[in-house]
Write a structure and sequence with these properties.
Number of strands: 40
CATH superfamily of the largest domain: Immunoglobulins
Strand content: 35-45%
Largest sheet: 5 strands, antiparallel
Radius of gyration: 59 Å
CATH architecture of the largest domain: Sandwich
Number of helices: 3
Helix content: 10-25%
């Protein structure tokens, strides 16, 4: 502000002070221009302008500004930068705002908004230079400086700052794959798209190193194998390079191709399985070594228990202490995330028994310890015992060791000689076990005084034998008496 402008502001300020102090109800803010008589005294071409504000009703602050009055408007400032190529974390850069007008106010904008300084930014004392001490990628954008003289302002042209960075850490992604720890699994026959994920400015260069010569190494960040097979398994490497930052990073992914699964089979020992006496191992046989295995019992998933144990990879199922209800059916299923296949059901033939032996007359179901049957009637006895395989039956009578074989014993016409105890023995040749049961058969007939011819003949013979014995003894004693 020139001397004339300063004197104009001084005179205007004195006048305004008198006006404001004598006014009872001043406004909270006011703008005043110098009276016309002061304007006529201005010689420097700068016209004073006064801005007054008040925090309290009776106390005002007034500021006087002098404007350059000329036919030419405020010139547009020029914005320049210290360097054109900037690399993240390795560069410091400065923006310079140049103007021909002194005593101006300078403001800075970033992406069309007022610039908010952070700890990495510094302004010069006159605000004409802005320095970013350590450039980062988020500093990229459009910058401008604005020059204000009083109420007149001009903005510089936009300067775009492009920060070069990267490449960041590289990851190779497969669109149709499944991450399984340190490998990515893909299903045989699928189309597999490889994609490199990283951040870089400018765009990176890509160099691929593939596990097979059947694929031409690509030069882009993506490529596709249309129908993947086992020959495509292995390590895929991609070197990502930035020609400006001179940095490179390597991305690596291991690919495992899962075959289409075929049905497995269950192997087991070709030995007789005996209840309570044996344990058995069932093995799920499959050519797909990478596939997971799940066992099923009676169509439901099988879970380990005290008697059912699985190997570490579920390939073998061990049944301890076989029970007769462990017959199954058993199935094993191989699976991966893309497919599954199940074996044919397997039933185990478990040998057991014989259990308790029951003897029943005729078709009766109840066990009998004593059976009465009429003389000359027929009698059928049934011997039953639960056994696998079916038991073999052997009948005996208390007066005969070999009477009959088979589950059923039939007598067409009972006589007195059929009276007595009958025994049935059930045996299992596989388990080596045998069990027996007995029943008493009583033959009963009508009471009669007449004897049958056979009985009479027996009685006669018995009497004759007794008489013969008596005569013989009498003769013996008589002969011995004569000698004495």
């Amino acid at each position: 502000m020139g001397p004339s402008g300063f004197r104009g502001c001084l005179r205007t300020g004195i006048l305004l002070s008198v006006v404001l102090l004598t006014t009872r109800i001043p406004p909270m803010a006011a703008q005043f221009t110098r009276p016309a008589d002061l304007l006529s005294n201005t010689q420097s071409g700068r016209d004073p302008f006064v801005i007054c504000s008040s925090k309290y009703v009776s106390l005002w602050w007034c500021h006087c500004f002098s404007f350059l009055l000329s036919s030419a408007s405020l010139a547009k400032p020029t914005l320049s930068v210290s360097q054109s190529t900037v690399i993240e974390l390795r560069s410091m850069m400065t923006f310079y705002c140049r103007t021909d007008v002194d005593n101006v106010t300078i403001h800075w904008t970033y992406n069309n908004s007022t610039l908010v300084l952070n700890e990495r930014m510094k302004l010069s004392a006159d605000n004409k230079s802005l320095t970013i001490l350590v450039v980062q990628r988020e500093d990229s954008g459009s910058y401008q400086c604005e020059v204000w003289y009083g109420f007149e302002g001009q903005s510089s042209s936009i300067v775009l700052l492009n920060v070069n960075y990267g490449p960041d850490p590289v990851a190779i992604k497969l669109d149709s794959g499944v991450d399984a720890g340190d490998v990515v699994e893909v299903l045989e026959g699928q189309a597999v798209n490889f994609r490199v994920e990283t951040q870089s400015r400018p765009a990176s260069d890509y160099t691929w190193y593939l596990p097979t010569d059947s694929i031409q190494p690509p030069t882009m960040g993506t490529f596709t194998i249309q129908s993947v097979s086992k020959e495509h398994e292995g390590m895929y490497r991609c070197l990502v390079s930035n020609s400006v930052t001179q940095l490179s990073r390597l991305g690596v992914v291991k690919v495992q191709v899962l075959e289409k699964l075929t049905a497995p089979s269950i192997e087991f020992p070709i030995l007789p399985l005996v209840e309570n006496a044996t344990s058995v191992s069932l093995t799920c046989k499959t050519s797909h070594q990478e596939a997971s295995v799940q066992w099923f019992l009676r169509g439901q998933p099988l879970w380990p228990s005290d008697r059912l144990t699985l190997s570490s990879q579920n390939r073998t199922l061990i049944i301890h202490g076989l029970q007769r209800d462990d017959t199954g059916p058993y199935e094993c299923e191989v699976w991966n995330w893309g497919s599954h296949a199940r074996s044919a059901p397997l039933r185990l033939a478990i040998n057991y028994g014989p259990d308790r032996v029951d003897i029943t007359p005729g078709s009766a179901s109840g066990e009998a310890s004593t059976i009465q049957a009429m003389l000359n009637s027929s009698l059928t006895l049934h011997c039953r015992a639960d056994s696998n395989p079916d038991a073999k039956y052997h009948w005996t009578h208390e007066r005969s060791s070999a009477l009959h074989t088979g589950e059923q014993l039939s007598i067409e016409a009972l006589n007195w000689e059929h009276d007595g105890i009958y025994s049935c023995t059930a045996s299992n040749p596989i388990t080596g076990l045998a069990r027996s049961a007995s029943v008493l058969v009583k033959v009963v007939g009508p009471q009669s005084s007449s004897l049958s011819p056979g009985v009479i003949a027996g009685i006669v013979i018995g009497i004759l034998v007794v008489i013969s014995v008596v005569i013989g003894l009498a003769y013996f004693f008589y002969s011995r008496k004569d000698r004495w």
